Protein: ATP-binding protein
Amino acid sequence: MQIAVEGLGKKFNREWIFRNLSIAFEKGKHCAITGGNGSGKSTFLQVLCGYIPASEGKVTYTFNNKPVPTELVYQHFDISTPYLELIEEFTLREFLTFHFKFKKLKVGLTINDFVELVYLQNSAEKPIRNFSSGMKQRLKLGLCFYSQSEICLLDEPTTNLDTAGIAWYRKSVEPILEDKLVLVSSNQKHEYEFCTESLHIPDFK
Structure:
């Protein structure tokens, strides 16, 4: 999967968040997206995966040398962000059964495997609303790590994780680097030290 960004800009009301961003992303060239608070790092990721529209410029997607229609782009992405909402009324097992009706688990894995990989095997039958913030974060990251999507977008991935959780993140992200394109929005080096490319979004204000 390749992503080409040309002259991308986003504004809310009359205020530009970022402008004139051009870059190409491709598998094997994992990229750290850095910038000051309010520079638009998280917004940039949302535009990339089609959650919100760009105000100017364009993003094109190519898979196996063929253009990907905009309405099908979501099939190729998984995203973990602090603002991502989970269905907290579901138990973990109910949520995963629902989620993987729309996404595919990595080949060879079962839901039970997934639960063990994110260290939530003692909470499989508990409502997600009763999870700690760290448990929810491991769940969000696991949805990115253990799906069949080609692109993994991580926004401040170790938010709410303790020391053990950060170690889990660093250990878990390594095996996916051969299979996925990983983009990390962060100013914390330990979250993106595996990246080989970088994009710095300057303050537009």
